[in-house]
Amino acid sequence: MSKPVVNEDLCIGCGTCESLCSNVFKIENGKSHVVSEECGDCDLQEAVDSCPVNAISLE
After folding, report:
1. What is the CATH number of the domain that holds 42?
2. Burial letters for 1-23: b for 16+ Cβ neighbours within 10 Å, e otherwise?
3. Residues forming beta bridges with residue 33, ordered by sequence position
């Protein structure tokens, strides 16, 4: 399974990833952070594809 990674230098803290996958991403101090690698019922690829600045990747 792929692990989500957020490039904090690119992240603008828009919150799209958190709204799509709140089990994995949280906005803290204006940036997204990975809080869990277990997604549950969300789609990590959708969060990656929806990031407007391409700050999220799966490794």
Report:
1. 3.30.70.20
2. eeebebeeeebeeeebbbebbee
3. 26
Tens-place pLDDT, residues 2-55: 899 999 999 999 999 999 999 999 999 999 999 998 888 888 999 999 999 999
Task: Quickly state the pLDDT bin for 1 (edges 50, 70, 90).
Answer: low
Which residues, at least 6 apart from 42, have a Cβ–Cβ distance to it below 8 Å?
20, 21, 22, 23, 24
Count of domains observed in the chain: 1
State how far the Cα of 49 lies from the Cα of 37, in Å rounded to an integer.
17
Domain that includes residue 42, residue range = 4-58
Please state the pTM of the whole predicted model.
Answer: 0.91
Phi, psi of 56 (to 5 degrees): -110, 135
